[in-house]
Amino acid sequence: MVINTNIAALNSARLLASSSAMLEKSLARLSSGSKIVDASDDAAGTAVALRLNAQVNRVAAASNNIGSAISFNQTQDGFLGKVANALDRMSELSISAQDVTKSDNDRALYNAEFQQLASYISNVATKDFNGVSLFAGATLNVTIDSDGNTFGMTGINLSASVYTTASSGNVSTTGAAVTALSNVKLAIAQLATDRAQVGANSTRLNYTSDQLAVLKQNLVAATSRITDVDIAEESTQYAKYNILVQAGTAMLAQANVVPQSTLKLLA
To answer: Which residues contact 191 (CB under 8 A, 6 or more apart)?
Structure first.
């Protein structure tokens, strides 16, 4: 029996330190809700979760871009709806101006309204959305995924000749009204095509938005399986380590008492 080296106490202290460390880690997991408190807990899992989290954030950013593009399309369609009403009225005025019972003074009144509607269409062609022209006709590349791939959103050009020709007409005379009607009908046909294109753009963007929502949900679920702690399981582990710490503390106290028995040999 020796007193300089208490092997039992050293062994008890080592086991107690190990149990205490595991208890602290279990407590950290329960308090943080994550089973990866530091990278050493799961090196590979940490790397995978890092990549998944980055992709989730990129998907969210792409979803925001698509949301802005959908708003852009909705604004376009709202303006085009009003342009459609203006062209409808212009065609109506063109027919009314061809009434043989109307005088040129009457046609001048029709023409005044015709010119105001034409001016309105020309004004709409200059509108923008957050500084981006709504009707310049340029194709806009919308980011649609986390890898930066894009969808070319076909632009609408209200400055096209078919619209400017219709807007530059007049119904001040019967002959002019006939020409104006022909030009307005062409503009209406083009507008129908343009509104269909805007609708097609919106449909594509809405499908892509739904797809990204599903992708984001699955990525988050995959990350959760790697990083989120199972509270029920970890609570069991916490109770286990708590008991081991208490038992280890008691046994270390007992181990430190053992050398005192040597005093009996010296008595």
So the answer is: 80, 83, 84, 87, 163
Distance CA 96, CA 247 (A): 101
pTM of the model: 0.79
Who's near 141: CB < 8 A, 6+ residues apart? 150, 151, 152, 153
Q: Could you give the angle at which helices 104-124 and 43-96 cross, rounded to 10 degrees?
A: 170
Residue 207 counted as domain residue: yes
pLDDT value, residue 81: 96
- Residue 46, in any domain of the structure: no
Strand spans (E) along 159-250: none
Same domain? 69 vs 16:
no
Instruction: Note down the domain range covering 168.
Output: 60-227
Average pLDDT over residues 186-198: 96
Mean pLDDT in residue range 95-122:
94
- Annotate 105-144 with DSSP letters as a single string: HHHHHHHHHHHHHHHHHHHHTT-EETTEESSB---EEEE-
